[in-house]
Amino acid sequence: MNTETNHPLFDTSLSILQEINIPRFTARGIKLYIKRDDLIHEEVSGNKWRKLKYNLLQVQQGNYTGVFTFGGAYSNHLLATASAAYRAKIKSIGFVRGEELTENSNNTLERCAELGMQLIFISRGEYALRNDKQYVDELKSEHTNFYFVPEGGGNYLGMVGCQEIWKEINKPVDEVFVAQGTTTTSCGLLLGKPAKSKLHVIPVLKGFDAYEEMLNKLKWFLFQEDLAKELLEDVIVHPDYHFGGYGKYTPELLAFIQEMYTYYKIPLDPIYTAKAFYGMLHELESKQYDNKQVLFVHTGGIQVCKEIEKKNNITLFTN
Ligand SMILES: Cc1ncc(COP(=O)(O)O)c(C=O)c1O
Question: Hey, what's the torsion of the CAs at 178, 289, 240, 207, to 10 degrees?
Fold first, then answer.
């Protein structure tokens, strides 16, 4: 496989490493950097491109007709796949959770359809089989020459793409913070991180066993459980910043997003990055972070904000 960092579809040099100055932290010698992967592209932003990059290379190098994947009604991954496939001039099929939905149910699905993605709405029961080998094999034989990308881009190649973020970090890092869903991004970051640095993960799901989920992913990546466990010693899980669980948010979190944009011009989304950023700022109040170099990986997801602004009749980003 070609493992060039650059890919003609999207330019990751748009993702700058931005230093932000929060006086109460700067006064304690904390340097805070944000890896702005949200700037890679409006729709294929953040970890989405990191996860799709090598998957799309497989599609292109393997001469596949297209790609098929899974996602929920508001899935960032579904939209990113549709958008990247459109740009790569390959076909895309999205299996969507919820047979009651249509392509007009929301902006995300509308946009996926507009980008040429064939949307197939399936029941929750069928969706539950999305990681079942036999079920996926059946879909592969129904859609011959279509390459399968799992939900959330959560496969080996997705992890490899996320690991690559480190190639673009030219500062020493003691502590890195990231939002967690499928754990693909955090596992990739863990595999590539500098020795001695700590990886702080903020799961956005309530009651999520982050350690176990990461161990499961890393075991099949490394073929060595002991090594996976050793790597996980550098992971710190912060389980209390989920704000009610996946897809849930509070007025406090929305106010936090508005405040972060007003002060630092950092856009955050209420599903993933705001929870992680909020968690990080809360943790950094502790003295143990004095004089540390801290990195926040902005994993994107901002396009969902339009929908949330409309639903709550608010403006999140005011200049
Ligand atoms: C914006 C955003 N941030 C973070 C994550 C979590 O990443 P992962 O699923 O790789 O843990 C996701 C989900 O993919 C996401 O859409």
Answer: 60
